[in-house]
Write the structure tokens for this entry.
Amino acid sequence: MNKKIITANQITKVIVDLCIKANTILRKDVYDSLKSALRSEKNLRAKNLLKLIINNADIARKNKLAICQDTGLPIVFLRIGQNLSLKGDLVNAVQKGVGIGYKKGALRSSIVKDPIKRSTPKNIPAVIHTEIVPGNKINITVMPKGFGSENKTALKMFNPTASLRDIKDFIVKSVLEAGPEACPPFIIGVGIGGTADMAVLLAKKALLKKITPLKTKLSKDILKAVNDTGIGAMGLGGKTTCLGVNIKTYPTHIAGLPVALNISCHALRSASKTI
């Protein structure tokens, strides 16, 4: 059986489209959660802010404009089938697609190539995460991550004896420290397990999951505690500080318990395609 062949040009074209889509069309699960929050919010000021956030998403979609002026640092997740044959330079194809996509979509350049000298911003390079999976297809996801929320990332290396209460308290404290600077209402990604770097990656991947009704006690407790802080939409009060909590776990060492938090603002943006 011949392997399926995908070319670098195909990948570049998909990346171009995903960069524009992710930045201009708010994910349906996030949009629906904002609508639901608007219906249940009692605080008038918060209600008006939620209306503005929803209207902003509507205008962005209709006019193909960026949802937020911070079009983020593009993060590209590649799930590559082990039976797939790639023709061409994969990394170059991704970076080329991001560069073209951000220029074509009139999206702000925010990347300084030298993090110390703070050179003139460009729109590349993106951060790329690859994973080899069964099959002969490639799933491509683009997540433009704004840094108002990214700057509030937190990591704690717990002792293995830590309780769920300890984990919840750490996350809620981190959210309180983030406050309005991360542009609530938030979507919270939590990574538990692995090593320090794995936990942080898990937390970011958790943001790619759809916002769904919560099933675990920990996620329910976190959501309630965060909304009880009263930070509210854009930090101006109300009960809508967080729209959803997603948790991803991975096995870890018997001597440790890494826990990471990655927050997204209300403009949680990502778009995917499988080829």
